[in-house]
Design a protein that fits this description.
This protein is mainly alpha-helical and 237 residues long. It has helices at 2-12, 16-19, 21-35, 63-85, 95-103, 109-123, 125-132, 136-158, 165-183, 194-200, 203-218, 223-236. It has twelve helices and no strands. The radius of gyration is 22 Å and the shape is globular.
């Protein structure tokens, strides 16, 4: 129902109603879940509190966390270099691109407002508890809409290129591999080291690595074919 409401408001809504399609759908889904007894609000929280240091215990070294933070460090470095040399920046959370494409709002104001809201949720525990009480299926329904926009961005980029049987395998296997690992149960990763499970259970990482390996290793084009393809595109342009 949340998914259908998002789609309906986006296609048929006007003005503020259309722009608020996601937040209205989340509120509706939260209300239904609350009436069904699926929402548990934590009690006994103070209205205001400053963040605590080492809330989850003293720092510990985990290779899985190190690998994750290295990915963020690479993304930050890429954005820094993109700003210096006038390139295109990257984002570690790809679904954001789908959300921007879905809403059509490219202004930095929503990003600044969301930062303020996150700060407020950290300083006012009841506000953070309310946001954290949104059931996972409700949030997933909204992300599914953003995922559709993200998929279309990729498809529009792919159709600009010549799609042969080789490209069919690369695109199809990478996409299905990324989706497949996300459908595996959590118990599947219990016997795997944490650092490896953090990588292999991430659909975006698996799909990206799969496409790179298929493109440049498994189904690599002969050097002569690559040169001819580049020459053909240059002549066409």
């Amino acid at each position: 129902m949340v998914l259908l409401i998002v789609i309906y408001l986006t296609l048929h809504g006007r003005g503020l109603l259309k722009n608020s399609a996601i937040i209205l759908s989340v509120a509706f889904g939260w209300l239904l879940s609350f009436l069904a007894g699926e929402v548990i609000l934590p009690g006994g929280t103070t209205w205001f509190s400053l963040p605590s240091l080492f809330l989850w215990g003293p720092p510990s070294f985990e290779i899985g966390s190190v690998v994750s933070f290295l990915g963020l460090a690479v993304s930050g470095t890429a954005n820094f270099l993109a700003g210096v040399f006038g390139g295109i920046g990257t984002i570690p959370f790809a679904i954001s691109a789908g959300l921007i494409s879905f809403s059509g709002n490219k202004s930095p104001k929503p990003f600044i407002l969301s930062c303020v809201i996150f700060i407020a949720m950290g300083l006012f525990p009841p506000l953070g508890a309310l946001a954290g009480s949104v059931p996972q299926p409700v949030a997933a329904a909204v992300l599914l809409v953003s995922g559709c926009s993200l998929a279309m961005i990729g498809l529009r980029d792919m159709v600009r290129e010549e799609i042969t049987l080789r490209e069919n395998f690369i695109i199809g296997l990478s996409l299905l591999s990324g989706i497949g690992v996300m459908l595996l149960p959590h118990s599947q990763w219990e016997q795997i080291p944490g650092w490896a499970a953090g990588i292999l259970s991430n659909g975006v990482i698996v799909g990206t690595l799969g496409s790179i390996l298929l493109e440049h290793v498994v189904l690599r084009k002969p050097r002569q074919s690559v040169s001819q393809s580049i020459t053909s595109k240059a002549g066409h342009n």
